[in-house]
Structures are given as C-alpha cells and as structure tokens.
Amino acid sequence: MGRQKAYCEEEVIEKAMAVFWKNGYEATSVRMLEKEMGINQFSIYSSFGNKQGVFLESVKCYKKKLSCITDKLKASQNGIAGIKEYFYDFQDFSEASHLKKGCMVAKTLGETCDKTDSIITEELMKFSNSLKELFKVNLAQEPGRSEADIEKQANYLMICLQGLSQASRIYTQEQLEDFIETTFKNL
Amino acid sequence: MGRQKAYCEEEVIEKAMAVFWKNGYEATSVRMLEKEMGINQFSIYSSFGNKQGVFLESVKCYKKKLSCITDKLKASQNGIAGIKEYFYDFQDFSEASHLKKGCMVAKTLGETCDKTDSIITEELMKFSNSLKELFKVNLAQEPGRSEADIEKQANYLMICLQGLSQASRIYTQEQLEDFIETTFKNL
DNA sequence: ACCAAAACTAAGCAATTGCTTAGTAAATGT
DNA sequence: ACATTTACTAAGCAATTGCTTAGTTTTGGT
What we know:
Chain A contains nine helices and no strands. By secondary structure, chain A is mainly alpha-helical. In chain A, helix 4 packs across helix 5 (79-96) and helix 8 packs antiparallel against helix 9 (173-185). The longest helix of chain A has 25 residues, at 51-75.
C-alpha cells in the first residue's frame, strides 16, 4: 500500500558512489548528492538514513563493482604474478571510470582524521584488510617465504597501492605503469 | 606608531602548521586556528589575509622545519643510500612531531579535488617537485643509469613516500621501517 | 468512492563555514 | 596633553552544512 518509489535505490547509489569517489566523504555535500542522484533530500534520507548511510552503501556498491578483478585475484594460483595483474587490472578499472581516478577507499581512508566517524573508518579498514588477505594468499604461493616475509610484503603492497591511488590523479598512465613495474622488482 | 602586536607571527604560524598537519586544509576551520594560534580572527586576517594565506605560510614553516633533513640529503654524495637515509630521517621527523604523523604536504595534496584552490595545489606541487629533483640528483650518482631510469625511479620514490605518509597514521613504526626496507631492496 | 499509507516537493531548522566590521584599548609623534 | 595610528574584542554577516517537517500527490485496500 502507498505510493511507489520513482527511483531505483541501486541506480541512485551508483551515482552517489561516483560523487564520493571523485570528491571523498567530507567534500561531498548532501546537496551535491541530491543533484547527482536525481532525487530529493527527503528520498535520500528515507532510503539511506543519513549521509553516512549513503556512503556505506556506496562502499558496498564500489566493492561490488570491483569484484570482477578481486574475484580474478582470488581465483588465481600464480602468486606474485597474479597480484601484479591485479595492480594492472585496477589501473584499467580506475582509468575506465572516467575522470574519477584512483581508489575510492584509499581516497576516503586518506582523509581520515580524529573527528571522522568511526563506523566509516572501520568499514574502510575492513575493505582494506580483506584485500591484504588476498595478497597474503598469493604471496604464500611463492616458495621460500616465511610468515613474517609474507606479512611484510603484503604491507608493502598495500602501501604501494595507497600511493598508486593518490598518484593516479597526478601522474600519467605511463608513469603509473612504470611505478607498478618498479614496485614488483622488489618482491 | 600605533599599538604593537601582542603575538609573534612566526610563533603563531607554527601552531597553525600543527593544526593543518593534523587535519589537512578543509577540515581545519578558522575557529580551530583561532583557538590553537591563541589569537583573534581579526589578528589572523590582519596578519595573513585569509585562510589560504595562513596555509601558505604554514607550508613555508613546514619546509623550514624539514630543511634539516632535506639539507642533509642535498649535501649527501652517496646516491641511493642517501635517499634511504632521508626516508628514515623523515620517519623520525614525523614521529617526533607528536601525534600528527605523516607528511603535511602529502596529506593536503591527497585531499586535492576540483574545487581546491589552484594556488595551494601549485605550492604543494612545487614543494613535491623540488624534493623529486633532490632524489634525481642522488640517483644520478649511481653508476649505469639512464635519464629515463632516473626519472622512473624518482617517480617511484615519490609515490612510495606518498604511500608512506598515508600509512604512518595506520601502521606501526616497525611496519613502516619494513616498508622502507622493501622499497629500497632492488633500487 | 473513499481512506490510509507511502513518496514526493519545498521550505526551513540550528549549527558551522570563511570573513567583516563597529567599537575600544594601547602606543607614538607632536 | 592631545591626536593619530595601529591592534584588540566581540558581535554579526551571508552562505553552506546535515537534517527535518509541513503540506501535497500518488498508490492500493476495502
């Protein structure tokens, strides 16, 4: 009973994700979301509770959109080569999404400060840690690596990925590829 | 003639720098600056024009504070070893500054978006590029490196430093050291 | 046909943003 | 001593923030 929604929640959240991806969390206002999602503020709050809710849903959407390359990494059995391919896949993925380059999670994690909502930080860390676990699985496929080595190299890769994400808004595609090549020389 | 200032501009700008360092540009409000600098908004605007002016002056102050380790890098003649030492020096520098870890320039560069003041972006890029030039000088001291190699490796180091700065608010001191070691393994 | 439940529009809320300004206090030149 | 110049306090500005709410439209059950 009652009037039916004039919008699809999944569709509008994809638009919201694009805005967060481009501008981060704080720099994205509800008015911007309203405009970009194409629905009124009332609808936003009725569907997602608050700005934080829109963001958390956007992260889910991002994860889903990224799943094609994370699944590929998960399925790979070729150790470091698989991780390297993930880096390149991520580059394509990031580049394909028009102007909004870099990683949405890395971007918003980077702007974290004291007053940042802990729920948001936790969600981003969860995302980040699950990727790190995938790296560790593939690193373990390489011969002659201790647990400690794997942990170190996984951290190295995560930090490089963070840097790569930031760099993707400044450096050229060619420079970013060079970075990936140099990054994997050290493993 | 006229009343004399009750504060020292250099002193209050150091306080301002600390706030920007911790929170970045956007997340720092003039009220926070007012409180932390210990002077009224009128004094802030009379001394530095506007928020942007306070920030630009803070960047100068940051550069000055960092100069002890950049000068050391500049004086070094030992190629990559000198750069690696710069990374460690920067770690100590970042750690020594209480809670506000990471690099102020990297942090504010990371939050750059479309609507960010271009003057600020330019100033940060200038800072970043001058450091890159120092890296290139030291890289050129190593034997058997083409111009192209040097450029690539300098970019690699800059992106790693960006990642390191971001990571310093999440990872432990030990993990960060491991990162530096891995970064320089095969350079 | 009518009523109730849900979704819409648009105005408005308090709080915060960067910045200004009217009024007052202190210092210096004459 | 007086006038002028500068610095200070504190109130206030319009614009924007995240969020709410009063009033209207659309839907479905009876």
